[in-house]
Amino acid sequence: MDTIAELFARDPLKYQEGDIEAIIEAQREARRLYKQSGKPVSSTKRDVDLGDLGLL
Amino acid sequence: MDTSIAESPFLADGRQWAWNSSSLKPAKECARKYYYEVICGYVTAEENVNLIFGGIYAGALELYHSVRAAGTSHEGAVYDAVSYALGQSWDKLDANLLRDLPGAARNKTREHLIRSIVWYLDEYENDSCSTIILANGDPAVELSFKFQYSDEIWFCGHIDRLVNYAGDHYVQDQKTTGATLGAWYFKRYNPDNQMSLYTVAAEIVWKAPVKGVMIDAAQIAVGFTRFERGFTFRTPDQTAEWLRDAEYHIRLTWQAAEAGWPMNDSSCQKYGGCPFIDVCSKAPSVRQDYLDGGKYVKRFRNPLDVR
After folding, report:
1. What is the ipTM metric for this complex?
2. What residues have CB less than 8 Å from B193, skipping those under 6 apart?
3. Which domain does A35 fall in, by range?
4. Where are the domains of chain B?
5. Cβ contact (<8 Å) for B224 and A34?
6. What pTM was computed for the model?
7. How many structural domains comprise chain A?
């Protein structure tokens, strides 16, 4: 199972279907968290489990 | 002067004839800075990071607006923009390599780039400003311009987008910064070399009467990206004055070459501190060693490059 950090570390030429969508959704999730809490967030440094985001 | 086959922004005698805002700005500040930055092509490592980050960020947003104008959905256009940025930034903007850089450049990581693009596009998904459609039917995005001012002076550059907002036309420019956004941040853009040139260019090249520049600024921080929109206005007599003044500074810069690129030492501490202060503060005999000592990279930017 790929984390967002792992997806960022992969050569974009080797992305598979759904990888870019997962990266976009992780950024949106981070934005929602930031807007809700008003506190800085990270969408990549923590190992976001795509399952947690409903992507797998 | 026939410039149709010219690729160099310099005349045979070495004088620059094609001027963009990036070369005119240091010329106005200090002849020595212009020499190091424009003639020699030196930039600091942190400025190089800022240029890479800002270039890909603006390119991704331009792509978004371009495909949106062609009928692509928001989701499809976000995908295209992010895909472009991931490809362009691959092997660049590595957080581990940026960690030791001074200033805001350390936050210009690849992850923060992608985050900022997605957040910006979602923030302005239902924007009340729209892309102007040019007379030839093309959307006014990714616009490179070049126009002649006098026999030996041309102005050139690149505009992100022309927009219609509340019934008026504006140049739209994307800025990324580490600075906190607010009225103080936007105040720096009037007077401002780049914003004045963009206003002039829009009116001369695309014959679009514009009120000024709409600046969409993104504050890039460790855990968030925050956006704010500001405006800077120019009247026709202000832009005419800017053109006259620009010619004056260009002619002074031409003369500076013959004088050995004299230093303007009253500018060294301004603008957040000149990036070449550590070079100019050394004896002339050792300055080249400092330039080649690793703090600077060579990045020659031809004002005539078309995106």
Report:
1. 0.92
2. B21, B24, B25, B28, B242, B246
3. 1-10+18-56
4. 35-126+268-307, 130-260
5. yes
6. 0.92
7. 1
